[in-house]
Structures are given as structure tokens and as C-alpha cells.
Amino acid sequence: MYRSERRSLFRFLAIYLLSTLILFTIGSAIFYTLEKHHLLDRQREAMKHEGEKIQHQLIRLHKSFEAKLPIRVKEPYKIALLDKDHTIIFSNFTPPKNIDLRQEYHLVDRHILYIKPVDPYYLGTAYLLLWTPVDGTAISHLQNMILLFMLGAGAFFLLLGYFLGRLFIAPMRESIETMNRFIQDTTHELNTPVSTILTNLELIQTLHKCDAKEEMQRIEIASKTLSRIYDDLTYLKLNHQYHRDIKTVDLSRLLQERLEYFSTAIEAKKLTLTIDIKPGVVLHIDHDDAIRLLDNLISNAIKYNQNEGRLDVLLDEKNFSIKDSGIGIDQAELTTIHKRFKRANSSEGGFGIGLDIVYQVVKAYSFNITIDSQKNRGTEVTVRWEK
């Protein structure tokens, strides 16, 4: 799956799952609240029924003139009998203080308190208090049921969202594959004529004397540009399937070779080249990746430079830096300039893929890259491989 596809799929799934999660959370919270109230109502009804039974016991004891206490109470209930002055006659628990005896039910410390007025005052009892813990088992079962439902629904909607997302990005995938086929066909058609032009150009320069030096120089620049475009398009076509052969590369020598490769373009633009290359700098990297990294940065520094401008190249054990005196980049575009097909200036040629390739190479080797630029003042790009 391509990066653009993954990005679109992840965004779709994030929005889809977040909205689904919010809806299910609200629905589950409402369901939990209603069911919890229903469970508490059932407990209250049971307590009310138990209170009626205890009152009947009080009536029997009162009529038989046998004030035998305590009264039998079914577990897990606790009982308290209060007179009309709110004084405890009998209790097997400590009633909460400052309780409004006119209110029938109270929730106190995860317990339910039921208050039943007794009239007439059987055995002097004016209030009957029943105390029991909230049924935690039923509430815990309800919570587990909702949690399992949320997990099951989450898994179902995740799978559903994934398949919907694949359908959503299917047109994008088709377009990308069509574009990749076009790139593949184009690069295939470019390869043979570009190689032929470069080979014959070298033969002409080596074996024959030619007075048209400027024209030959232009042909060489154009041919090398085509060759580099071919390499970049081939790399993009391979995408993440590119196989890297990591080995020790003499970066100092390779950089000298690449600057020599671009010497014609540097001379054509009359740039003042300043080179500070420390000898013997080596790096563990794929040779072609190193060429892509250097070529794209050097090419951009030449392409976006001014005529008769400056080009400063530095290489040491820790980093490679290239600085130009060109058109520069707006500060607002610095964070997005490396994205594929992004171009800071449409007046210059190119496809907007150079920095994208550079960032792919940098990411593959966990290097660090910084771009410092000022509009119409120039740009400096630094790649660091040692912290």
C-alpha cells in the first residue's frame, strides 16, 4: 500500500472510528444509567416489601403484648427502630446522621437506606429504617456486559471501517497504479535514447575535435538531466520495494565525482563553487542511495541558484551541507516542501520529486535533515548522520 493510500485510509478510519466510539459511548452511558436505576429500583421494591413484613411483625408483637426484640430480618438487611423523638429503640447498624426521615430512600456510601413511617406507634416505633449495600454484583455484571458489547462492536466496526476505507481509496489506488504504469512505460522508453546520447557524446568529445563547445555543453546538460530524471522516476516506481545493498561508501570520493558530473551545469550558470571536503569520510549506505541523496541536493542548489551565484559544499565526518545563493523558500512552505510533487517555484523545471527522494533516503537510514532558507537570499540544506 502506498503512503498516500495509508494516509487516506488512516484518516478515514480515525474519523469513522472516533465518531462511532463517541456515539456508542453516549449510547452505552445512557443504557448503563437507565439499567443501574432499574437495578436500584428493584432493590428498593425488595426493601419496601421487607419493610412491610417487619411492620407485620411489629403489629403481632404489639397485639400480643410481647416486646421481644430483635425482630427477625432477612440478610443482607440491617434494621433500626426509632421513636417519634428520633431516638433509637433498637438497631444492629449505625444510622447515618442528619438524615431527612421524610424522604423514603437515600443513597449513602454505596448503601441504600429505606425509611418507613410506622403509624400507629407499634411498640413505640415511629420510624423503621432498613439498610443494605447496593447490589455490586449486578452492577458489575452490567458493566462487564457493556464492556464486552463495546469491544465486540468496536472490533466489528473496525473491520467494517477497514473494508469501507479500502473501497473509499480504491479509485485513488487505481489512479496511482495507472500513473505508475505510465512512469514505467516512460522510463523504459527514455532509457535507450538517453544512454545512446550520453555514450555518443562522450565518444565525440574524446575522439573528435568539435568547435561547437557551447552547443555540446548544452547537449550534455540536457542528456544528464534526462538521465537523472530517469533514475528518479525508476526509484519512485519501485517505491518501498527497492532493495538496498548496504556497504561502506567513500563519501568524499563520491561527492567529488558527483560535483564533476554536474560541472557542466555549474559552468553554464557561472557559479562560484566553494568546496570543503574532508578526505576519507565513509558511510554505511547503499551506493545508489548515496548518489540519489547527493545528486538531488546538488541539482536543486544549481537549478534554483542565480546566475553567477555562489555554491558552497561542505563534508565532514558528521554531516554534508550544501548552500546556494538562489531564490530561497518561503517560511510557510518549509514544512511541506519535501512532499512529493510539491514545488516552491513553478518558474523552474522539475517534477517536485527531488526532495521527496532525499527525505525517503534520510528516513531509511535515520539521518537528520534541516533546511534553512530565506526568500531571495538562498538555501542551506544539511544532512547529519552523527548526533
TrEMBL record:
<dbReference type="InterPro" id="IPR003594">
    <property type="entry name" value="HATPase_dom"/>
</dbReference>
<dbReference type="InterPro" id="IPR050428">
    <property type="entry name" value="TCS_sensor_his_kinase"/>
</dbReference>
<keyword id="KW-0808">Transferase</keyword>
<dbReference type="InterPro" id="IPR036097">
    <property type="entry name" value="HisK_dim/P_sf"/>
</dbReference>
<dbReference type="InterPro" id="IPR003661">
    <property type="entry name" value="HisK_dim/P_dom"/>
</dbReference>
<dbReference type="Pfam" id="PF02518">
    <property type="entry name" value="HATPase_c"/>
</dbReference>
<dbReference type="Pfam" id="PF00512">
    <property type="entry name" value="HisKA"/>
</dbReference>
<dbReference type="GO" id="GO:0000155">
    <property type="term" value="F:phosphorelay sensor kinase activity"/>
</dbReference>
<feature type="transmembrane region" description="Helical">
    <location>
        <begin position="145"/>
        <end position="169"/>
    </location>
</feature>
<keyword id="KW-1133">Transmembrane helix</keyword>
<keyword id="KW-0418">Kinase</keyword>
<dbReference type="InterPro" id="IPR005467">
    <property type="entry name" value="His_kinase_dom"/>
</dbReference>
<feature type="domain" description="Histidine kinase">
    <location>
        <begin position="185"/>
        <end position="387"/>
    </location>
</feature>
<keyword id="KW-0812">Transmembrane</keyword>
<dbReference type="GO" id="GO:0005886">
    <property type="term" value="C:plasma membrane"/>
</dbReference>
<dbReference type="InterPro" id="IPR036890">
    <property type="entry name" value="HATPase_C_sf"/>
</dbReference>
<keyword id="KW-0902">Two-component regulatory system</keyword>
<feature type="transmembrane region" description="Helical">
    <location>
        <begin position="12"/>
        <end position="34"/>
    </location>
</feature>
<protein>
    <recommendedName>
        <fullName>histidine kinase</fullName>
        <ecNumber>2.7.13.3</ecNumber>
    </recommendedName>
</protein>
<keyword id="KW-0597">Phosphoprotein</keyword>
<keyword id="KW-0472">Membrane</keyword>
